[in-house]
Amino acid sequence: MQGKDMRLFRAILYHIFVVLGCSFLISKVVSHFLGLKEKLGDNIGPTLAYFLIIVLVVSVCWYIYNRKASATEASPSQTIELQARIDDLRQSLQKPAVILRSTPAPGKPEGYVSCLGRVTWQLPGEECPVDADGNRMEPLATLFVPKLAGVPTEFRNVALITIFATEEGWSEAPEEKPQLGCVIRTYPTLEGLVPCDYVSGIWKTCILTPEVVKHDMPQWPDCGGTDEEWDIIRALEKKHKIDYHKNICDTVYESIHKADFPQSFSADDSIHAVYETHKFGGYPTYIQDNEEPENYTYVMQITYDSDAGLEFADCGCYYFYYNAEKNDWRVLFDCY
After folding, report:
1. Assuming Cys at both sites, which of 127, 163, 177, 251 could form a disulfide with 172, CB separation 3.0 to 4.6 Å?
2. Partners of 301 in the beta sheet?
3. Cα separation of 27 and 50, whole Å?
């Protein structure tokens, strides 16, 4: 008998022994509680019929149990096919991005250093902007645009971005104030810039260190990806009981849990994750539904940051959109 036939023979024997063993035990228990032993006596016919009925019931129950078990247990080929579909989804969804790791500044940043809570470079003659009431605006960020793969193409002609904001600017309606109280200055070159030192009175200075990640993933359908891709994801979740965050993009990194970040975002190229932190490129990590401005491309975000004291409402986030032809910005905001 060949190996395959032997395995089949053993499987049949296993099922027979299980059914007969369970039937024997059940028949004894039922006979005891119903007093069938005294009623049937030594009549072989009724006793055999009673036992066969028990065997039939147990066989049906055993068959149903095994059908359900085999339906929920994927075969090796199904497992391989599922993993291949997940890999295809990851490949089509993933985007490179430049994460800006935030750490408290030990002192005044020197040189071309990106930072929060401070603006350190400007053109000669420029001054700290003021709001409509003549109040000095807060320096939110100095962002030197790194020449890294994850930086959006819209920034290829931008070397430096400085952002000033009002503390309550995020509460303005986007359709009424498209930049939400932000003054955003872009510089195509660093030549001719002079150092300055506008320090925020409400936000602490933090250094922003750029680092490339290769596999930024959308947090929700509204954050990126096509309708077709999300239809596939929903079908896989329904059929195979998988979870998008757990099984497709491995995890979610939140800027409010910095201690949980890996030592290096880019240490493991196999990580597919939602990077919910300061970054250039990749996907916006919307908290609520957002309607992106027409003809403007999402290019970066600045999020809640406990080290810098950035508390935009309840763990909110600024999303920046840029039109390179107009050199113009739109800003969205949301929070929990």
Report:
1. 177
2. 279, 319
3. 8
Residue whose structure tokens are 């819209």: 154
pLDDT in tens, 94-113: 999 999 999 999 889 999 99
Structure tokens at 315: 């763990």
Q: How far apart (Å, rounded) are the C-alpha atoms in residues 117 and 292?
A: 26
Q: How far is CA 293 from the centre of its chain?
A: 23
Specify the long-range contacts of residues 168-173, CB closer than 8 Å, at least 24 apart. 170/312, 170/313, 170/316, 170/318, 170/333, 170/335, 171/313
Tell me the pLDDT tens digit for each residue of 37-85: 666 666 777 777 777 887 788 888 877 777 665 555 545 556 778 888 8
The pTM of the whole model exceeds 0.90:
no
Of 94, 65, 89, 85, the closest CA to residue 239 belongs to 85
User: What is the Cα–Cα distance from 112 to 164, expressed in whole angstroms?
Assistant: 18
> CB of 289 within 8 A of CB of 305?
no
Residue-wise pLDDT tens digits, 133-189: 888 999 999 999 998 889 998 888 899 999 999 876 666 766 667 777 899 999 999
Q: What is the Cα Rg of the chain in Å?
A: 32
Query: Where would I find the beta strands (DSSP E) of the chain?
Result: 95-104, 115-116, 118-122, 138-144, 160-165, 182-187, 194-199, 206-216, 251-254, 273-276, 279-281, 297-303, 317-323, 328-334
- For residue 71, CA distances in Å to 87, 241, 244 come to 23, 13, 22
Residue of 320, 151, 295, 288 lying closest to 220 (CA atoms) = 288
* Residues 304, 310 contacting (CB under 8 angstroms): yes
- Give which of 287, 149, 269, 275 is closest to 216, Cα–Cα: 275
